[in-house]
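The methods section describes the discrete structure representation at length, but only in general terms. Since the whole study asks how a given chain folds, the encoding of that fold should be made plain. An entry of this sort, consisting of the sequence and the corresponding backbone structure tokens, reads as follows:

. . .
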Amino acid sequence: MELHTNSLRKYIGELVVNDRENHNVYDHEWARLRSFEKFPRTSLSAIRLSQKGFYYTGVGTEAQCFSCGFSNSKWPAGISIEDIHRKGSPDCPFIMGAASSNVPIHGGADSKPEVEKALQNENEELRRQVSCKICLDLDASVVFLPCGHMVTCEECAPAMRKCPICRSNIRGTVKAFLP
């Protein structure tokens, strides 16, 4: 996981450096959040600012909306970031909830259908991989010894004399507990 996170940081860092003129990289909430790494220490939340469409411009406390270009550097206490954004740019497509190019960190309403479909397919594939290869109903939870294959559930395992994967004789079994 660490490798993927570092690769993503490097990739987005390169995009930010190479994309100062057209702020398409800031369509990604992750990139907006990363832009706040050098933001002055204040009571403002970089997470909230990036969720509300802002990225850090690098000047004082100024942040700019990726969608409408609205820029603000005064963040009065007691007024929500969304309210400031809505007042400063009432027609912002992002604030209005209209279709926008926003790519949120954790999916949600703005998730792209192709991303959701890919995640759904991956989930089905993972479910298929852990299911019992005999009954296809329960999760595989028995490890065959000595080969180490885990392909059956507790109900189907007693009927096996040979491993269905490698065909070696089963000399023992171990119940596996997966998190």
